[in-house]
Amino acid sequence: MNLLDIRNLSIELETPTGRILAVDHVSLSMKEGEVRGLVGESGSGKSLLAQAIIGVLEDKWHVHADRFHWRGIDLLRLSIEERKALLCKDIAMIFQEPMSCLVPTTTIGAQLSEALDNKQFTGYFWQKTKQRKEAVIKLLHKVGIKKHDVCINSYPHQLTEAICQRVMIAIALAGQPILLIADEPTAAMESTNQGQIFRLLASLNQLKNMSILSISHDLENITHWTNTITVMYSGQFVEAGTTQQIFTKPMHPYTRALVDSSPQANLQIPVKSRLMTLPGSIPILKHLPIGCRLGPRCPRAQQACVIAPKVNNFHGHKVSCHFPLKKEPLRTEPSRKEALNKCDTEQVVSKEIF
Amino acid sequence: MTVLLEIKNIAKSFKLKGHWLHKKTFCALCPLSFALEAKKTLAIVGEAGSGKSTLAKLLVGAECPSTGQIFLNGQLLQYKRFKQRSQHIRMIFQDSGTTLNPSLTIEELLDEPLSLNTDLNEPQRKKLIRTTLQKVGMLGDHMNFYPHMFSGGQKQRISLARAIILQPQVIILDEALASLDPSLRSQMINLLLDLQQQMGLAYILISHNLGIVRHFSDDVLVLSKGEVVERGNTAEIMKNPQHKVTKKLMMSQNFQLKNK
After folding, report:
1. Contact check, Cβ <8 Å, A257/B183
2. Tell me, what CATH number does B67's domain have?
3. Is residue A43 assigned to a domain?
4. Looking at the predicted complex, does its ipTM rise above 0.90?
5. For residue A263, what pLDDT is reported?
6. Chain A partners of B252 at a C-beta cutoff of 8 Å?
7. Burial code of B61-86, b = ≥16 C-beta within 10 A, e = fewer?
8. Taking the model in full, what pTM does it have?
9. Structurally, how many domains does chain A consist of?
10. Among A16, A116, B13, B192, which residue has the fewest nearby CB atoms (within 10 Å)?
């Protein structure tokens, strides 16, 4: 049974000139214990989608879905209060920029104990204060903060960004969620701290069997620890599959460009060569192209692309494209090897000259 | 190949508060020397507080070095002689959105360095602005626009145009690629590489993304707490790092590299 099953979710923005379709029929499903990456560049609607799942969008956004199931319960049939009660218990979210999401005028300890539910504690009411304090310390230990005394009594601005991010994770873990939505948990962080946060989340996934939806704008950041990846572009679903599939045989031209353009994920690119890119830039919300929104930038675009493509499923590898790259990987693999060999020989030559 | 930029024993230390007999100093950058040739890229990597940005500030002339000299084409660059330095060494900052003056049009923005540093008259300056904008892949008519009308990638191109308009020899990229989206970042890398070939620019790249460093740079300098811990050819250092700090940096990003 799927943990989360969303079909054709659309989010519309109400503007003075009419409604704009910001997220256009996106499907997302998650199994229990799965780590899924949600990748998209800025303006792809990935954060909107996450906010729509936990229901914290403002009134000007309108959300529609064909199907929205949470552990077999149809959330669309429930009232808003019932839905909130259900989701608050099971889903937690880590927001971007931890510094600005923590309350600046309250100590970390007070914020953490506020997040703890009274029902978790057993015993008489006079024992609960002590239990609460112990639970706060335990949570801090769990996210890898050893100096709990200092941390509890300090305000967010006194701590570094990485510690604040850990506190955010601790607050999210306080309710013992089943699904954790991490919205760019390592944005603007040092690479060594990034590794720590990712290791922490990965260990939580393995020890607690907690599912994680990790949102990132960069494909290379999240590849090492996700099982499956969903790629979005400008509010449309692009491709979904296992990390292996996405990386070795991307079927959508956009995913292909993302993989090829990243020198970090792709070691085969010769040094100082031109990277493969798509021309143009990401369309803004006011001027979205009709049909497939990648159309004006896509190297394979044809006349059929003015109609939005349907999702095709190739053995669990879902692609939304009229002309997917199906046979490409077979042809390109030897050429990539050649490129690597060529690159090696070039380096040898340059060594000899110097 | 002749040496373009040569740094000799440059160091920077700051005075800390202390007793007047026991003055304390904090060494942000220990004595360091290197040389850079035209059409080459030197990458500087390191953790936060390792002195990378201090080095950039010293090179561009925003701070006065405590000791050491900077030579450009064999000529000594003196602190506060901006006319000499600002024509040849230019810098691009991390956040292009906040480094462009929002109340000036692109033409006025790009006109400032020209009117301060060159003796060109107005039509000549206008013509140069137009050709520079075309060089970075924008339209000449964009010069009547204001910065807020552009997207992030275009703003970064304008900062690049501002950097190359004086035909410099060295450009310092201080995390200039970090905040861009991946597809725009690779466009920018392509553009920088093209300009390097066309104009013979030398780059000093300050970055924490080792993938870009590996792709973009010829030599690398690893800094830690103001000291150079490792230096040499990028490919060799990436292949077998020697020092602990380099290994740690590689490790923290290695998971992405190993995946393939």
Report:
1. yes
2. 3.40.50.300
3. no
4. no
5. 66
6. 191-192, 194-195
7. bebebbebebebeeeebeeeeeeebb
8. 0.78
9. 1
10. A16
